[in-house]
Design a protein that fits this description.
alpha+beta, 28% helix, 2 strands, two-stranded antiparallel sheet
Length: 74
């Protein structure tokens, strides 16, 4: 099933680079929402050298993902 049509997938875009950078670099992926897939997400974020995560949502769907990522000190 396409990630665009399945609410069990989470699209991610990571912008990274030095703070004074005018044009940050971008990394993009889509992950599922099972525990194993969220662990993969955490490891992917660590591989991108992410130290903080900001989420935007129009509902409460982000809460379980946020709670999971807190275990990884994001």
């Amino acid at each position: 099933m396409s990630p665009k049509r399945n609410p069990l997938f989470v699209p991610l875009v990571v912008l990274y680079g030095p703070l004074p950078s005018v044009v940050p670099k971008q990394a993009q992926t889509t992950v599922g929402t099972t525990t194993a897939e969220l662990k993969e997400l955490a490891h992917w974020l660590l591989a991108q050298e992410v130290i903080q995560v900001y989420m935007d949502s129009t509902s409460q769907y982000w809460c379980p993902i946020w709670n999971f990522l807190e275990c990884f000190d994001f």
